Amino acid sequence: MCSACLFNDYLKPEKSLYDTLADDKRFTKFVDEIERHNLTFKFKAIKAGTIFAPVNQAFDHDNNDNHSTPEQVLYHVIPVAIKSNEFWDGRLLETEAYSGDLRQFLKVTKTTFKGDIIIGTGVEANRAQVIQADIDASNGVIHSVDNFLPLPVNLDETLALDNDLQDFCDLVNKAHMDQELKNAKGYTIFATKESVFGNDLSDIEKDYLNSKEGCYDLARILKHQISPKIFYTNDFAEGKSKIETVKGSESLAVLIHGNTITVNNIKVIKSNILSANGVIHVLERPLLPKNKDFLNLDTRKVLSAIHATKFGRLLDSNGLGRYLDKDQTDQVTILAPPNDKLDEGNVPKNQMKAWLEYHIVRNRYRPSDLIHGQLLETHSHDDLGDSYYQHIPVTISEPNKLIQFDKSHVLRDPVEIGSNAIIYPIAHRLVLPRNTVNRLPANLELSTFVASLYASDSDKAIEKAHGITLFAPTNKAFTHLGLLAEHLLQPESRKKLEQVVKYHAVRGLFYENSTAEGEHKEETLASDARITLNKTSAGFFIRGHGAADENDRAVIAKVIRTDILTSNGVIHTIDRVQLPENLEVSNHNLLSAEGTIRLLGLLKYGNMPKNVLNGTSKDEPYTILAPSDRAFARTNLSHLSDEKLAKLAKLHVIPLGLPRLDINEIGKKRWWASDNNEHRDIGYTGTEFPSLLSKDIVIVINKNIGGGYSVHIKGSSQDSADILDLGRSSSGGGVLVIDCVLVLPEEARQKRWPWWVIALIVIGIFVVLSLLAICVYYTWKWYASRREGQVSL
């Protein structure tokens, strides 16, 4: 045995580690670094050690060799002698280098196929490959390497060096934790590969954590993945153990089973990435707190997630922060515009609160609760008064079910917050409805009503009213009034026009979908005038004065366009103008508006009852058949005596109310019949009416097959007169304008020819036709003989 020892001593190298380096020209630059940092004595004093010696070429890759430190040189020295066959993949080697009070380590990596030995920190940017292993020395062993390794950097920089940890690194910077990691005195980070959150968090939670306002909660999550002590994998004993986190709220459960390490049942797929002040282990999926409500998303946090913090700040600064508070108990739906689309500068200061509350809907509405055309009640009173709240319309587009509130569409799925609130991110801010008077001119179908509004000076009253429903007649609706519309638009009828206009402004809000079914009377802005609203399965109807019954669509209006929202109410358009009961319009008013001066003159001869022209009492209606002035111009009345003129005047008066005619038919001439199946008094067979002249004289009004209406005297040979226009008076009577003057029965008989005159005319026509036939016959015979060459001499 002594012989063996002597043999080993004889084979043992005589040169020390330092001398071996100094004598080998491959390591001259490394030796220069040792001497430059006055480490020669320290290297010579090594009793046993391992040196990873960079060859000269390694320094050619280092552009900062003049900035190396003594610790960087010592980072290549292991205080024990280790042969290459003692390296295994993942082995940690304690070096002679320190960073502060923390000793630095090297990590050994052995490739699977070639068995190459690589040392470094575990990241690609800080590694060196062993070129020649096991260069023996008297006090240790040298392994030449191809890189002069830099010292490990701090945790914040180490994260940036690994591509798999880029997301974790970005979140660290976003959470303002980079400085904490830089100054840490020994941390262990369990970082997730690639995505820190993965699919374990909802999109809204991720967006919140990535927002500026979410950095505090983001830091809480990241600190849940960090321990305040350094734990290399070889520090964990086989089995289960627990380690505390920087956050401190939950500990982490570490399980070692053979070569497998899990943290909270999540597998470690890459371990021991070394840094100057700690170590990083990479997990295969996110490591999040076990408490699923750890984020405790409230309204303000969700606004941060959808980039609507400006909206939240405006609510707070205008005393409306209660809608965002955690302890608010009212159910609300919040329509939140993004920061870049929220331009509050265009909103007057006195409307700011109402405008903000217009984005807060009363009650909570999920998408499944919304219906196309629905009106949602907001918290904004606007100009409606304290009793009413402004509404906002909902539009749902097919087939994608795209939801739109007013004109702003929803950008993403809504977010529910607890049991009381839901937030819809919308494309841009909502705009409060304009005032009723300002909203009307935008609809060209209402131009006549708008003109009436201003002509009657009713605009100011409607503009100042709070909480009104305006039933606005269309232009076509005014044509149904006929002569009455012409009368109302006369300057001298301004007060009457004001009555009519204000009669269409109902006190209270009656949205089409929220008005109760049935009939009820409501007050209007017209003094002492109530109007009847009737909601049925057939539609929404409005009835003023003058309808014969509840089915009289010649008078009763139907809502044809609903729920045009305004700042002080709502507008519905209707197809008939409604008249208040106290409106006084006489037949004289209607005749004056039409300009039938000749008829007014004729009526003076008739010794008429006063009510025929000027009556407004409903107990004694009269209907006047009024020939136009053009019709009078075609008729010679100069031969008539005063008595006959008086009779002629009475002939044109019907002592009854105005017949129910479809004004749409008047003046029309078609090649086909029109029947809307609406109840009318006048049909194609005609309806008989008495004349004021005599009960024996019957006036017949009938509907023409080709369109329009005509009037004739029963039994008279005179052609019928077409009805050109009509107008209803307050008494229930009115005026029918006709295109010719009706003739007294005796005058019609006088104008008829005797029978013998008619017989002579017929005989004369027969003789002329016979002579014409004979001439044609002989002419043809002469022509035929000429063609055959036989001409009679």
TrEMBL record:
Where in this chain does the record put each FAS1 domain?
Answer: 14-149, 152-287, 295-430, 433-578, 583-742
Provide this UniProt record's keywords sorted from A to Z: Membrane, Transmembrane, Transmembrane helix
Xref: InterPro entries: Adhesion/Biosynth-related (IPR050904), FAS1_dom_sf (IPR036378), FAS1_domain (IPR000782)
Among the Pfam families in the record, one is Fasciclin
- Residue ranges annotated as transmembrane are 753-780
One GO cellular-component annotation of the UniProt record comes to: extracellular space
Checking PANTHER family in the record gives: FI19380P1, PERIOSTIN-RELATED
* Protein name from the UniProt record: FAS1 domain-containing protein
Q: Report the source organism.
A: Rhizopus delemar (strain RA 99-880 / ATCC MYA-4621 / FGSC 9543 / NRRL 43880)
* Source lineage: Eukaryota, Fungi, Fungi incertae sedis, Mucoromycota, Mucoromycotina
